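Subject: two folds for Thursday's group meeting

Dear M.,

Sorry for the delay on this. The cluster queue was jammed most of the week, so I only got both jobs back this morning. I'm pasting them in the order they finished. Each block is the input sequence followed by the predicted C-alpha cells. Could you check whether the formatting survives your parser before we put anything on slides? The first protein is the one we discussed after the seminar.
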Amino acid sequence: MTEAHRIHGIAAALNIPNLDTDQIMPKQFLRGIDKSGLAKGLLWDLRYDAAGDRRPGFILNQPAYADTRILIGGPNFGCGSSREHAVWGLQQFGIRAVIAPSFGEIFYSNAMNNGLLLAMVSEPDGQRLMNEAASGVGPLHLDIDIVGLTVKSPSIHAPFSLSARYRQMFLENLDVIGATLKMQDDIVAFAQGYWANRPWVRDIASMTRRRLDTLWAQTPKV
C-alpha cells in the first residue's frame, strides 16, 4: 500500500461536540493576504490562556503529542462559519486527517477539496476510538486505509464513508482541478453536443456586447 493510500500516526482526541471553525481558527488570524502562518492560530483559545501562555493540560501542548497527525473529534466537527483558514491551519499544524461521526457541511467540502481527509465513522465507533485514546498510557496510533475505507487501532477496526470522487482524489493525489481535468473529454463532448442543439445561445454574452458597442458607436454624441 503506498503512502497516498494510507495515513498513519499519533491520534489526539478532542472530545468536544460542535467544535466550530471559529474555535479551530479564531478571527484574529484571518488578517493575512495568503495562507501562511496559520498553524500558530490553530485552536488558540484551547492551547493558550488569556495571557497568551500555553495551557499544559491541553492535549496538543503535551510533548507526547507533538507529532500528532490525526484528530479524533466529536459530532458536528467543523460547524460554524465557512472560513477555509480552519482547514489550512490544521494542515499547517501537521494534521492529515480528522475522524468524527459527523462534520459541518461547508467544512467537509473545504477539507476534502484541500486534501485534508475527513473520515466519517458511526457514533458508536467514534466513541470507542475516543475512549481508547483516553484510556491508554501513551498516545494512540491509528492507521487509516483509504483503499479499504477503514480506521484501525490496536483494538478497533472501524469503517468510514467517503464518496467515490473524494476517494479517487486522495488515491491519485488530485485536487479539484485535477479531478475535473480527468473528465475533460466528457466535458468537451457535452459542450459540443449542447451547442450543436442550441446554437442560438452560444456566446450570447459576447454577441450582445458587440451589438451594444456597435449601437454606442452609431449613437450621436452631444
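Second protein, same layout:
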Amino acid sequence: MIKGILFDLDNTLVDFEKMRKLAVDAAISSMKDCGLKIAESRIRKILKEVYEEKGSEYGEVFQEMMKKTLGKVDDKILAAGIVAYRRVKYSYLDAYPGTIALLNTLKARGYKIAIVSDAPRLKAWERLICMKIHNHFNAVITYDDTKKTKPDSLPFRKALNILKLKPSEVIMVGNDLRRDILGANKMKIVSVFAQYGRYKIGNLKIKPNYTIKEPLEVLDLVKNI
C-alpha cells in the first residue's frame, strides 16, 4: 500500500527550463542594451557551455561568459543581466498544470509528501515559496542536506527516515531517468517517469515502473499500485 510520494522538483513540479530560458533571454537583451558588444549567438553558446560544465545551479554564469568574451567582468553589464534575470525568474516560475491540485488532493487524502532534489537548499525553498506550495511537504531534501546527488541512495533514505516509511510504501516521481528513476529503482522504490517535464532521456536501458504524461495521473497510480 502506497503511503507517501517523493517528488523531484525542477522539471517535475516546476517548469524550470522554461523559466531559465526566458530569464536568460531577458538577461542577454539587458546586457546588450548596457553595452555588451558580443554577438548574441556567441553569448548563448558560451552560456550553454558554462551551464553544461558547471551545472544548472551555477551562480556566476554571466561572469564566466564575460571573462571568456571581454577578458574581465564589467559590473554595470553584469548588474543589468542579473536584475533582468531575477525579475523574469520570479515572474515565470510556474508549477506545471495540475500540480497544485495534485498536491492539495494528496494532502487531503493523508499521503505523506516529500521533495528529493539536487538543488541547493535555499534555491529549492525559493522555488517552492514562489509557487506557494511550500507548506504541502512533510520533508524537503536538498543537496545541502546530504551532500549527495541522485541516484545516490542517501537523499532517498533521508526522505524515508523523515517520513517514517519503507521503500515499498512510496513512489518516486521524476523527469530524469538516471537521477530519479535509476535512484528509485536501486532502492526498490516504485519509479514514475514524468514524461511531461522537459525530460532528459539519459540511458534508455533505465526503465521506470510507470510513465505519466501529466501530474494528476499520480492520483490514479497511488490508488492502484
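Two things I noticed about the second structure. The first strand starts at residue 4 and ends at 7. The chain is about 50% helix and 10% strand.

Cheers,
T.
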